[in-house]
Amino acid sequence: MLAHEIDYHIYGEEMQYVEIELDPQEAVVAEAGSFMMMESGVQMETIFGDGSNQNESIMGKLFSAGKRMLTGESLFMTVFLNQYHTKRKVSFASPYPGKIVPLDLTQFGGKFICQKDAFLCAAKGVSVGIEFSRKLGRGLFGGEGFIMQKLEGDGLAFVHAGGTLARKELQAGEVLKVDTGCIVGFSQTVDYDIEFIGGIKNTIFGGEGLFYATLQGPGVVYIQSLPFSRLAGRIYASAPQGGGQQRGEGSILGGLGNLLDGDNRF
């Protein structure tokens, strides 16, 4: 194996964290801000990119790190290396309620495609890159699904899903239609595209967006019930305006007030 062979345990139900056990000189790479705790003997180091290719030139590392800017991620990642003579543990937490999904990349042909904000951590040696759409429909209308992350290698990686997780195994030719924000990730054999919902009433009053994703098998797809964008939107819509009490809360006129004020959620 090129990637480090790590052991792990996932704790919790709604707000999970993953505890990774490192043998001496084993390491795990993680997104900035996901660290929770670690035992003594583990060294933390900030690096450009994901550290999957230590033999890259300086320009190569800069280019690799720069690509992450396109997905809205930091130029830097953090490596946690066990420099102790016995096993040590380090833990990483979910950013919001949901599930942590362990992915053995060898079971997906060495490559898995996921939403740009889904990646949590991985064994050092796993490459974290970007996956561009090759189809015009995705490029113009894909929204959250236009630029995605790709995880490549032969080690373990961990991604985070919001709310409840659904795992679907699609047969050859089988199609699943999904809200673009609800996709966590899928295997490289799945064909992914964007489709227009259609219909004037659906477009104006549907409240579900103008497009959804179509995923065609064969392959494995992970779906989340609560993408962070949806959670953030609901929190923002329910926040008090101008520091006062939420308009119409507990009132039969609350919905009418929201409508008149431009909140057209039916």
Mind sketching the topology for me?
Blueprint: E1 7-11, E2 17-22, E3 27-30, E4 35-38, E5 42-48, H1 58-67, E6 76-82, E7 88-93, E8 98-104, E9 111-114, E10 119-123, E11 127-131, H2 136-141, E12 148-152, E13 156-162, E14 165-170, E15 175-178, E16 183-187, E17 191-196, H3 200-205, E18 211-216, E19 219-224, H4 228-238, H5 254-260
Antiparallel strand pairs: 1-2, 2-7, 3-6, 3-10, 4-7, 5-6, 8-13, 9-12, 9-16, 10-13, 11-12, 14-19, 15-18, 16-19, 17-18
Distance between the termini: 53 Å
* Major sheet: arrangement of strands: 5-6-3-10-13-8
> Which superfamily, in CATH terms, is the homologous superfamily?
Mitochondrial biogenesis AIM24
How many separate domains make up the residues?
A: 1
Mind explaining what this structure looks like?
With 266 residues, this protein is of the alpha+beta class. The strands form 4 sheets. It has a 6-stranded antiparallel β-sheet. Strands 11-12-9-16-19-14 form a 6-stranded antiparallel β-sheet, with no helix packed on it. A hairpin with a 5-residue loop joins strand 1 and strand 2. The radius of gyration is 21 Å and the shape is globular.
